[in-house]
Write a structure and sequence with these properties.
Distance between the termini: 20 Å
Strand order of the largest sheet: 15-16-17-18-19-23-22-21-20
Helix content: under 10%
Strand content: 35-45%
Radius of gyration: 21 Å
Largest sheet: 9 strands, antiparallel
Order of helices and strands: EEEEEEEEEEEEEEEEEHEHEHEEEEEE
Number of helices: 3
Shape: globular
Structural class: mainly beta
């Protein structure tokens, strides 16, 4: 979980920005940026801050977290930002979908001035909320979302194969509840004729969701990595098949697949000493273990542990570097999960950045949510084959 109190954008200029101009307060923000650029030619502009309003009067509220953005087209002077608000299920006021708690907001922003033109709740009605979903059976009506954390707005190619025309080109904002074993996965329809509808995605599993990250190179298949941000937590792989019928989520392949947990070969990775990879370097092969998604989240967790699904130190977020390589970022260490002939045994796990203790990796933690970790926020820039710290202090 990252708590952001403003949206900021970093842009490169054709000229070298002076230190006085490196941080720019945008026309809709009451605060200057919290990030300081260090590279010549770059500036950072704050777009909007908690408590600020768009031109239509809609206010940004806490606790902003996962984001997604898309261009509104070459003939539009705006782009759209989608934002998770990581509230508990009893916090805040009742939103447009009918309940208190977490929600997703939508912001339309001018490309040139970065003024926030409008904002609104993405889901505008309780009738647009669909929960359940096992066997295609959904219940329409409001629900209290709990702690929607990180998010993924996958590339169109994650849910649409242009070569076969299978899938959907509708953008689906992916997230889940960081709310213990019962956390639910969701897909928020962000564009198209069904924009503003949200569907529970039960076949992706129930756990303490940090993020669900879809593979943009998956062809007719749909592959989503699920990250269980608990102590310890597992990493899950969902695989479905794109179709040309049904709901947007059906076409995207999010309703017909199976779930498996990653099981590292501990004997190769740690000499067989432990099945918990919170400590030490991870280098080894892995297999996957099927998970029954028709049972409760608590049973899924029990079954995963019984089957030896590997327990990482709070796996939080990740990125698909290519079709078969996923960078995993728990607090420690940063790890690659690789399905490729160039990987050992064609399925390998390897640490690429190691730090001692829980207070590592790319995430910022402090206070009661940081399990005693000091403030260790950093920005990093990835260079092959290393990760380099950039501008952290």
């Amino acid at each position: 979980m990252i708590r952001k109190t403003l949206i900021a954008t970093a842009v490169a200029s054709a000229f070298v920005a002076s230190p006085a101009l490196a941080q720019v307060q945008g026309p809709s923000s009451s605060k200057t940026p919290y990030v300081t650029p260090t590279a010549p030619g770059w500036s950072v502009t704050s777009i909007i801050t908690v408590g600020d309003a768009a031109l239509n009067g809609y206010k940004m509220v806490g606790i902003p977290d996962g984001l997604g953005a898309y261009d509104n087209g070459p003939n539009s002077d705006t782009f759209t930002v989608l934002m998770n608000h990581e509230l508990g299920d009893t916090q805040g006021v009742a939103r447009a979908h009918g309940s208190k708690g977490a929600f997703v907001s939508e912001w339309v922003i001018n490309k040139t001035t970065l003024q926030v033109v409008s904002g609104q709740d993405l889901v505008q009605s309780a009738a647009n909320v669909y929960t359940g979903g096992l066997g295609g059976s959904y219940t329409s009506g409001t629900t209290s979302f709990a702690r929607l954390c990180s998010a993924d707005l996958p590339a169109v190619s994650a849910f649409y194969n242009a070569k076969t025309n299978k899938g959907t080109q509708t953008r689906i904002f992916m997230n889940g509840e960081e709310n213990g074993d019962g956390g639910r996965a969701f897909g928020f329809v962000a564009t198209g004729s069904n924009k503003g509808k949200v569907y529970e995605l039960p076949y992706l599993g129930k756990f303490s969701w940090e993020n669900s990250v879809a593979n943009p190179y998956s062809g007719d298949k749909t592959v989503v990595i699920g990250l269980d941000d608990s102590t310890p937590g597992q990493v899950y792989v969902y695989q479905g098949t794109k179709t040309n019928s049904g709901l947007d989520i059906d076409k995207a392949g999010l309703t017909n697949g199976t779930l498996a947990g990653i099981k590292v070969n501990v004997a190769a990775a740690q000499g067989g000493a432990s099945g918990n990879l919170e400590q030490g370097q991870i280098n080894g092969s892995f297999t996957t273990v099927g998970v029954d998604t028709t049972v409760s989240g608590a049973i899924q967790q029990t079954d995963s542990r019984s089957a030896g699904v590997t327990e990482f130190a709070r796996p939080e977020d990740g990125y698909w570097a290519d079709a078969k390589t996923f960078y995993l970022s728990p607090p420690v260490p940063i790890t690659t999960v690789c399905w490729s002939p160039r990987c050992a045994n064609r399925a390998a796990v390897q640490a690429v950045l190691q730090r001692s203790g829980r207070c590592g990796g790319l995430r910022q933690r402090h206070g009661h949510n940081g399990q005693g970790c000091r403030h260790v926020g950093r920005l990093r820039r990835r260079h092959r084959p290393f990760l380099r710290q950039h501008g952290g202090r």
